[in-house]
Amino acid sequence: MAEKKVKLDEEKCVGCGICVDTCEKGVLEMTDDVLKIAHLEKCDGCNSCVEACPNEALSVSE
Ligand code: SF4
Ligand code: SF4
Known about the structure:
4 strands, alpha+beta
């Protein structure tokens, strides 16, 4: 069974940074106002960032 991991839709992301503070595992990082999934291996698919994003740019899937 595949693990659930976060995915980013770069076209929907406006770089607000809300999700970065929401993720307690340090998966997400902001560099020059661009969001990066910097540490995907740490993502446990908890869905917190998905719920926090106002633009539906993040999703969790297998
Ligand atoms: S799903 Fe959870 S662990 Fe993964 S990036 Fe989002 S907040 Fe972090
Ligand atoms: S909360 Fe959504 S729009 Fe804001 S930086 Fe994160 S993914 Fe992008």
